[in-house]
């Protein structure tokens, strides 16, 4: 398929600020690519065609090649050569979807940044609706799947997962929402200040706060190839989601510890009763053995719980997230001159 001709008038990477009194706004797309050679050209031409509907905006397309092994990079190079709005980041190996997004966010320059998949499951036309919501004042706009055309297993597990996560996580993660979303400059920069390693980007965005607006859409089928989220990767992402935003698993250990100690005490009382009052069925040595096993088991479980609660604290400290985010300061208060500088 031929590379689409690009209208350079509005799809321009370079902005001529001097000649324009009111600066045109730039919208960046962050586009992770992993082995998408069969569909990426079609994706790009559809995206460019969609953005033509907004000649009043400038666009930047940041493709992040996440260690593809199928010639995706060569195609991306061609796209960059024929379209100056394209910027390609080539990662040295496959770092995974969430890291690819992070790399793209770090190098996107837009006043608003849109993250979307490059397999046409997130329709490029929907991104224009995200832009409209941003223009009406929203700082974070997420695209929420009304329907999705995946296999029954994927649909079922995804459905269950989002609901379990919502129950366990300390923050309100919107259900049926992937990484397809728009963030303005402020929230993008805030997200970039989160540098934790095992990242669950959609959870981090949810934890930023601000007014978050949902735009419903119908998720399409993949144009080419098959999912790069096999069960193992999906489970890892799911685990990252739960462990990044909740210490419920650690708390469960503590509860298990308390329950074990209570049961151990009952068991010890039982062993003693048999030893003292029913000597005829008591086996020599059994009482001491029971007491020791139950006592040690209980103490170990409880200790694990205590250690777990410290590990939980260390974990949240290490994540080094901002303590709080101030959305707006109203008024200056006395002596505010200094604070406003
Ligand atoms: N992707 C990536 N690195 C990976 C896996 C996937 O950059 O290790 C990209 C992929 O090219 C696509 C997006 O992430 O643009 C979503 O991946 P996929 O479509 O395989 O996931 P699914 O839609 O099945 O959840
Ligand atoms: Mg997909």
TrEMBL record:
The chain crosses the membrane at residues 256-278, 284-311. GO terms for molecular function: glycosyltransferase activity. Residues 28-186 form the Glycosyltransferase 2-like domain. This is Glycosyltransferase family 2 protein. It comes from Geodermatophilus maliterrae. It is found in: Membrane. The keyword Transmembrane helix applies. Its main location: membrane. It is a multi-pass membrane protein. Pfam families: Glycos_transf_2.
